[in-house]
Design goal:
The chain is α+β, with helices and mostly antiparallel strands. The protein has 17 helices and 15 strands. The strands form four sheets. Strands 5, 7, 8, 11, 12, 13, 14 and 15 form an eight-stranded mixed beta sheet that branches. The chain has a three-stranded antiparallel beta sheet with strand order 4-3-6, with no helix packed on it. A two-stranded parallel ribbon has the order 1-2. A hairpin with a 2-residue loop joins β9 and β10. α8 packs across α11 and α14 runs antiparallel to α15. The longest helix is centred in the last third of the chain and has 41 residues.
Length: 603
């Protein structure tokens, strides 16, 4: 593509994004524009109807069996860690190559001892490739590449990242009154998982349920014994951890034992965002599934009405009319957070994700909401130009995504599409006034006026001077009329955009309020101190990074722009249903056998 064509396409992409009120990212706009051979009007009309330039149908909610929005290809799983300890200094000088040699040697010792098998191929002969028989097994080159890959993966697991686990000095371990605690693993590859468990403690519905849970008593027993296996054992470990987080006198708690129960995948690949490990079918989904199983069993055992705590149920809106449709459970929603538009926000992305479905009858909606909902902020695309932080609110209303409100919400979205269509017409009309044949007509008008007023020489001819002045005045009148018309259009566009943005903010769709409880953040680099969280405790927000704890403002939590230019930033948001006005978590009744432990340290 020539430079002129690239510039024209870039301008058309920007125009298309503006026509869609910034609700699409750069790559989607490019894809649809090319689909319609650069015709902006056809591309915009198609996008209003839901066309995103691809044939696949995206699902609003993330689940095991549903396609995800802009989901990148999964990274290969990390290799098995060798038995021999390996420590490679990746930041050292060239004279430390002996460390790499030791790592490669250790990796080779752990590789398969069988080696490659030489001999004729056992595959059926192929006439097209009959000159050289193939060998069964891997070539030496492939084996060497696999060995190197295993060594590198293992080195990342044990590499000295400069922020290895360091216990706090004893005089710094005492917890300040009213302050939260840290929950730290000894391995830096487990920090992301510890942050998830730590954040769940600050979700009031989770903390209360965990505190009130008791294992079933065997017949004739008077005291509960720790479960031996299954989800109940994981819950018991979580109860121990949460009890210490609530009552411990020390600020630094060890997460090793509770993490051993959940067995999270290590964050051993620096190229893999920690959010991908948290998102299903990863660690967060594993924790949510285990807790909901235990909570459901508890509801049945105690005769309580079943409640969905961490997993909501969703499906197509026409489920009742389609007997073959299935409802599914999920606890985390994937949202594409990499963008540069003004509508790069949580609710806007969810709405756009929902409208990607071209079938007006089938909409992904929530049938049974849960008390807690998590959002994985993925950044899998590419952005040209300035990046803007992803915006997420203090409160979010899920009413527009509930099955019971689908008709009202859809009618509002139809009004939004009509408003966007009117906006499109006005934007195109403004462009017709300001551009012709890829030239800026306003600039040309101003240049012509300048010429007649300052350059044209009447050469002493009064008639020539009069005509020159008349031409200048006519051009100025034309310029003033065009500018006035554009200004009026801009005012109408702004009004319609505001109206479209607030159509769903009606009382009927603002009943299911969820409040932000925790935010997990990645600054884009690799290591223990490059992940941190924000948690809320008694109306105060705290920033927790390894051993560092500091109180921050709500603005810091909602507008953290760290990692913006590294394709990172906030990656996991935890919301839970708003508590009744004035409701607080009172002194929780933790299980006596755990509460009676020496809570200076983890029991």
């Amino acid at each position: 593509m020539h430079h002129h064509d690239e510039a024209k396409e870039s301008n058309n992409i920007e125009l298309l994004i503006a026509l869609m009120d910034g609700s699409v990212d750069h790559e989607v706009a490019r894809r649809v524009l090319r689909k319609f051979d650069g015709d902006v009007e056809k591309a915009a009309s198609a996008m209003i109807e839901g066309d995103r330039g691809e044939d696949t149908q995206s699902s609003l909610w993330t689940s095991h069996s549903q396609m995800e929005i802009n989901q990148p290809r999964p990274l290969p799983p990390p290799a098995v860690r060798p038995n021999s300890p390996i420590n490679i200094d990746l930041t050292g000088d060239d004279d430390h190559n002996d460390e790499l040699s030791r790592a490669l040697k250790a990796s080779l010792e752990t590789a398969s001892q069988e080696g490659p098998i030489f001999g004729p191929s056992e595959r059926p002969p192929d006439a097209n490739w009959a000159m050289v028989p193939s060998n069964v097994g891997q070539s030496q080159d492939n084996v060497g590449a696999d060995d190197l890959d295993r060594a590198i993966q293992a080195s990342f697991e044990q590499a000295d990242t400069g922020d290895e686990y360091q216990p706090l000095p004893l005089d710094q371990q005492w917890r300040k009154e009213g302050w939260p605690v840290t929950l730290r693993p000894t391995k830096h590859t487990m920090v992301y998982a510890a942050l998830v468990l730590h954040a769940l403690f600050y979700v009031p519905q989770i903390r209360e349920r965990v505190a009130n849970w008791r294992p079933a008593l065997p017949e004739g027993a008077t005291e509960a014994e720790p479960p031996k296996n299954g989800p109940e054992l994981l819950m018991w470990k979580l109860v121990e951890t949460f009890t210490n987080m609530d009552l411990a006198k020390l600020v630094d708690l060890d997460a090793h034992e509770v993490l051993e129960g959940f067995k999270p995948e290590p964050w051993s690949n620096p190229a893999q965002p920690p959010g991908e490990l948290s998102q299903q079918p990863g660690f967060f989904e594993k924790v949510a599934g285990a807790l909901d199983k235990v909570f459901t069993h508890e509801f049945i055992r105690t005769g309580q009405a079943k409640q969905r705590i961490m997993q909501f149920q969703y499906g197509n809106s026409n489920f009742d009319d389609e007997p073959g449709e299935l409802l599914q459970d999920a606890s985390i929603v994937r949202v594409e957070a990499l963008g540069r538009s003004e509508t790069n926000d949580l609710v806007g992305r969810l709405s756009a994700q929902l409208s990607d479905n071209k079938d007006d009858v089938k909409r992904q909606v929530i049938f049974e909401p849960s008390e807690v909902i998590a959002f994985h902020l993925a950044r899998s695309g590419t952005v040209t130009g300035d990046r803007e932080p992803f915006k997420y609110p203090k409160h979010i209303y899920l009413d527009q995504f509930l099955k019971e409100n689908i008709e009202l919400a859809e009618s509002k979205r139809v009004q939004q599409r009509d408003l966007h269509a009117e906006i499109q017409k006005l934007v195109l009309h403004n462009k017709s006034l300001t551009h012709f044949n890829d030239k800026d007509t306003l600039t040309d008008l101003r240049s012509s006026i300048y010429y007649y007023e300052n350059v044209a020489d009447a050469k002493g001819d009064d008639e020539r001077a009069r005509v020159t002045q008349i031409m200048a005045n006519k051009l100025k009148n034309i310029l003033a009329q065009v500018e006035k018309e554009i200004e009026a259009s801009d005012i109408d566009i702004a009004k319609m955009r505001d109206q479209a943005a607030t159509l769903l903010d009606c009382p009927e769709l603002q009943r299911a309020r969820y409040d932000l409880r925790a935010v997990l953040v990645h600054d884009g680099l690799y290591g223990r101190k490059h992940l941190y969280s924000y948690v809320q405790e008694k109306d105060a927000w705290w920033r927790i990074e390894d051993t560092s704890i500091s109180q921050v403002s709500e603005g810091n939590v909602l507008k953290d722009s760290v990692g913006l230019h590294l394709g990172a930033g906030p990656y996991l948001l935890l919301y839970s249903r708003a508590l009744p006005e004035g409701a607080e978590l009172l002194d929780l009744q933790w299980p006596p056998p755990i509460k009676a432990c020496q809570i200076l340290f983890a029991c």
